[in-house]
Amino acid sequence: MAKITIFGQGNMGRAIGGLFSEGDNTVSYLVSDSPHDQLGEIIVLAVPYTAIAHILSDYKDEFKGKIIVDLTNPVDFTTFDELVVPADRSAAALIAEQVPEADVIKAFNTNFAATLSSKKVANNLKTTVLMAGNSAEAKHKLVDTLKTSGIEMMDAGNLKRARELEAIGFLQISLANSEKISWNEGFGLFK
């Protein structure tokens, strides 16, 4: 169905790659010496927010015309006490400004890797991935590539909703870091 390139092979990158692989998608992980012309039509940024500037610097031209899935949570990981982007902005919006010819979608940032891999939250609630983006066509393509993955996708609106998604991700990370919830749990949606 689609060629997916994932920046990052950590827990999130592998969990998301597994979801895409359950369809007829081709998934590749980018390493530092990968050729720039090997990028897929959907690019997943499964790296810490601090790595984004370097990636955009190196691949900005190659991101034109692509769907960029940003799952970063711009949390200050030294304190776990604040986001490092202005209160009226989001990491996804800042990425979209730097690559205006790409379709940026905020997704997966309100999920933990364990809930993506198990496809369940709290043992019985199906994992739901919230997404926000300005292109209905790009969001439809993302949903289509994940339709056989066993997770739910929910459209939270246009890209300006990314700041609320990042706030939810920040709260969830803060709760897990302070051991009030498990990294294997997280927030779920009842429909």
UniProtKB/TrEMBL annotation:
<dbReference type="GO" id="GO:0016491">
    <property type="term" value="F:oxidoreductase activity"/>
</dbReference>
<dbReference type="InterPro" id="IPR036291">
    <property type="entry name" value="NAD(P)-bd_dom_sf"/>
</dbReference>
<dbReference type="Pfam" id="PF03807">
    <property type="entry name" value="F420_oxidored"/>
</dbReference>
<feature type="domain" description="Pyrroline-5-carboxylate reductase catalytic N-terminal">
    <location>
        <begin position="40"/>
        <end position="74"/>
    </location>
</feature>
<dbReference type="InterPro" id="IPR028939">
    <property type="entry name" value="P5C_Rdtase_cat_N"/>
</dbReference>
<protein>
    <submittedName>
        <fullName>NADPH-dependent F420 reductase</fullName>
    </submittedName>
</protein>
<keyword id="KW-0560">Oxidoreductase</keyword>
<dbReference type="InterPro" id="IPR051267">
    <property type="entry name" value="STEAP_metalloreductase"/>
</dbReference>
